[in-house]
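BUG: 3D viewer hangs when loading the predicted structure for this chain

Environment: internal workstation, default settings.
Expected: structure renders.
Actual: progress bar stalls at 90%.

Input used:
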Amino acid sequence: MLNIIEITDFNAPELDVYARLTEAQLLNRHNLREGLFIAESPKVIWRALDAGYEPVSFLVEPKHIHGEAKEVLERCAGLPVYTAPLDVLTQLTGFQLTRGMLCAMRRQELPSVEEICSSAKRIAVLENIVNPTNLGAIFRSAAALGMDAVLLTPACSNPLYRRSARVSMGTVFQVPWTYLGDDIALWPEPGMSKLRALGFRTAAMALCDDSVSIDDPQLMAEDKLAILLGTEGDGLAENTIADCDYTVKIPMSHGVDSLNVAAASAVAFWQLVAGNIREL
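Structure tokens produced before the viewer hung:
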């Protein structure tokens, strides 16, 4: 039985979690068990549910209650399903881009680096990537192209931010991920030391004079490889690059010197993960 509650006032407290709390407030860094995130669109919400995330409430455009949102709502029968006239809902920034459905969900405790890397052969390490769109796109590529896990440095944006999860098409709930610590002082050391202790060779995606091509046979043959991708503006930090086993470039033409980090991740994952499988 659906628990549908109609909201007529945009300032109603029931809408606070959707309309007025910031991502930082939802995150609740000091107590993740009390933290929330907003998932949007039926597909993203469905994948979050499959991954074991606990829903708290829904906000649904009236026409979608018995349409696109129906199966998700039936799966979570009994939870509050807030709905409102379209003129109220459209005051929510970006609501019309969500396929008519939002869900407030509880966060989970993050796994340890050792836990998600215990059987991993190919992982991505994201250094200081703060753009949620890029982060979501990287996760989508990681899922599609067979990456085993994603590690984030402490300064990275959070993958469960609303836009990241949406752009990823919910793959942030499918690819194992965690942070390399919660203090920016933990990167690049001891983060890099931890990668080495786990048996990973490290490949920095960067344009340097001593860069090897992404299809380098020795690089491709590495048993356990961590692919490092840097921030949108400056790329990887110089000391990070210096500490890596390889510096890797994507061959390009027409005078193009670099790709957006999300595009570069897709090329790297295709060559160094799928390409590695093809060689075998």
